[in-house]
Amino acid sequence: MKTTNRLWLLVLMAAFFMQARAQQRVFINRTELSQHWRFPVVADSIVDMTISSDNELLFNVHGNIAVPVPLSRIDSLTIEREPLVEGKNPYEVFQLYITTNDGSDITSKDYYTDCHLMLNARGQFTSYSANAQIRGRGNSSFNWYPKKPYRIKLNQKHKVLGMGKAKSWVLLANYRDITDMMNTFVFEMGRWMGLPYTNHTRYVELFLNGDYKGVYQLTEQIQQGTSRVAVSDDRGIIIALDADDGPSLSPSAGDNFSSKVYKMPVCVKYPDDEWFTANTVDSVKAVFAELEQAIKDKDFPRVDSMLDIPSFIKYLQIQEFIYNVELSAPRSIYMHKDGDGKWVMGPLWDFDAGYDFDWSDMYTGHNFFSNYRETVMGSNPLKRNGNYNYVPQFFTDLFGCPQFVEAYKAQWETVKDSIVTRNWDECMRYVEQLRQNGTLQREDRQWTISGKNFETELEKMHQWLINRANFMTQLIQNIPMPSEEPNKGRLCGTIPVSTTMQWSKGYDQSNKVSVSKEQVLKLMGIAESDFSEANLSIIPLNTDGSEGSNGTNGTFGGWFDADGNPGAYANGHVYIEVFDDLWNWNCGLYQYQCWDDSHTVTMQYQYPQGGVLLKVNIEVHFTIEQNGGWW
After folding, report:
1. Cα gap 118→69, rounded to integer Å
2. CA distance 161 to 91
3. What is the rounded distance in angstroms from the CA atom of residue 229 to the CA atom of residue 227?
4. Does residue 600 sit in helix, strand or coil?
5. What is the pLDDT of residues 293-346, one digit of tens each?
6. Where are the beta strands (DSSP E) in 137-264?
7. Which domain holds residue 495?
8. Three-class DSSP category at 579
């Protein structure tokens, strides 16, 4: 549109606005990328319209900040009445135009930029435009990839594309996922299985400051609210078990803690900063520790009184089915609790690191689906014998309870025959719309991924899910029922051992902590012929003799702090890590923290025999030689 026609345009628009009535929309029309785009300016009346010195069309909507639209991006303007009956087709691909007020790009995850958005609901829902704010979001997805995810905060709550009224919304870029279906499949599966507050999916093609950005997944922000996670304002709790938001990687956040029993990173998402008191984090930590201890004790009736076990089972089965390795970190694991009610798992979040993602080229790669037989928790989750044998025992200790294993197997039986077909059919309804009107071609031109094709990757995903479901059926059927827990424990003795480590070698110590198997069995009174290593456990102990948790990558082991208590890596001085050899343990130290010349820590062998848990303490004395260093 030529700028010399500005006066003509003003006269024409004045005539249009004289006809405007409630429920009518002014649509800005443009043709680009072989597609006709229509973006609404929504208002019951538009009281002013001007053209700026920068050749931008300015709509003053109810006295709000003007909406800048460059004339060069406008082909025509039309006024249309909204349909009286919405089509309510959530599978449609909608059109979203976002303009920052100063025309700047979005480069920060920490600070919002003022913007205006125009959302064309294409007759399926009510079109919408509003003043808002936008910023980046995510961790690896924002830091590693060129296609950025965003968080939008509307100035007022609104029901967007049929989803519940709220201010905060998320635009997932799904750059790693060629199919754009990985999160959608899990969301569909979660709602079908009855997990509460599971997110919805709406696909949009996004323009940001006039530039085409491709296909995005618009969904809810996980937060407290009547149309989100509906825990009460005054007594509700939402937490995320997440390494990125925990005390190790976010030490100054103030809203996180290391859990008391399993030493997991926990971030308190609600109450949020606005509601925090000095005791909020400590009180949430104390309440959560009660559940942790009940799980640690394998006290099934007590766990059942504190945890919604069906949601816990469904949540774990979804994580394992999708092979979501984030369970092991953990990352993006949400839980919520309302007042005196039970802890409930969810909402589900962040699954584009599942589906057997190839982490060897994680910064640039898009490779999935190579192996459907790998596991996170393993064929015997109680022993954590999967590919990620350091998954927190919070998720696996209940497999030591017969009632839990029975319920776990029964739940899978109810879904195994339909878990792929039903939810894949739902995904295909989105796919059919993405195949329309050149959407996939535009996305491919904008974000060309060498050697990758949407249709090929989609078929790989489908076949992987079919194979995975069949594999999961066999895997779950064969989870061993736990034997009767010993009704008491007996400490049979203590064995002191010593080893010397070189400070300069840090993690790369060549020596090991060596324990005499013969001596351990002798103290326990077990003959070699009656002994099975499969029943042996090795537990790190606190200095008061209570059991700690394993924070290492080994099947057994522990990171020990300055006082000799096992805990998180971030506080660790020395570690013991036990893999296949249960009698020769790897060891090392954290150079940035461990300047001491000695440490004494305790590990405990435990073996069930005749209804008694036999125990032998291994008291390990480390001598650290300062043979050279960085200073």
Report:
1. 11
2. 11
3. 7
4. strand
5. 999 999 999 999 999 999 999 999 999 999 999 999 999 999 999 999 999 999
6. 150-158, 166-172, 202-208, 211-220, 236-241, 256-258
7. 488-625
8. coil
